[in-house]
Amino acid sequence: MSFIVPKKPQILYAPMLSSFGGGSARGFNPGGDPAPQTVYIARVTSVADGQDSFPSSTSFMGQTWSHSGGNADGGTINLSGSGQYKLHSISMGKRVSTTGNVPTIQMRVYSGSVASNSLLVSSQSITYPAQTDASSPYQCQELVFPTPVTLNRGTTYAVAYGMNTPGLAVNSGAINGGGDGIRTSYSLSGGGGTLTFGDMTFADSDPFDTSNGTGFTGSTNSGSGQLPVFGFIL
Fold first, then answer.
1. Model confidence band, residue 19 (pLDDT cutoffs 50, 70, 90)
2. DSSP label at residue 211
3. Straight-line distance from the first to the last Cα atom of the chain, in angstroms, rounded to the nearest whole number
């Protein structure tokens, strides 16, 4: 006589789902570690800090300018503490006309406060995003480094973008220093350090040999220069 031994029921395990709630932009890599999160810090007081998305529609740019090329905009940053962090992006004003050039933008980072070839940390280029807001100049756009730049905390870096002649040949938005508070420093939450902004010296090859006429903290322009928003991976 033979007996049929009933099989044990197979238990199916559903994968455990994890969520951060609140629509967090932090996702998961296949290995289970959180994906790097970009944190955006603005130099203007009207923008909330520590955002996880670029504040592209915030009205903090109140005048227009034209970048004719052959020069650069920039300033210095210094994030206190020890260890490393990454510079993900910088920013500039959106152009206010559908006409104009679509040039190559050179984005450079130098160790110290002087744009000098001997101090060059990173040199990368992108095509101008050509984002246009024909109705209002009060917007800015993100310029993302193709490869995030690894920096050391406690070290001052000069960060700038430039364009060769003829540049944009069209007006673009700029910060209205007189109508918005300008930060020279910002303390990150949770003991993340203090980010300090400063002015830089332009002394590298063209277009990084000449300032476009704006700075971060200079008294003549109330710190109303470009690069109003920085994106960091901390």
1. very low
2. B
3. 71
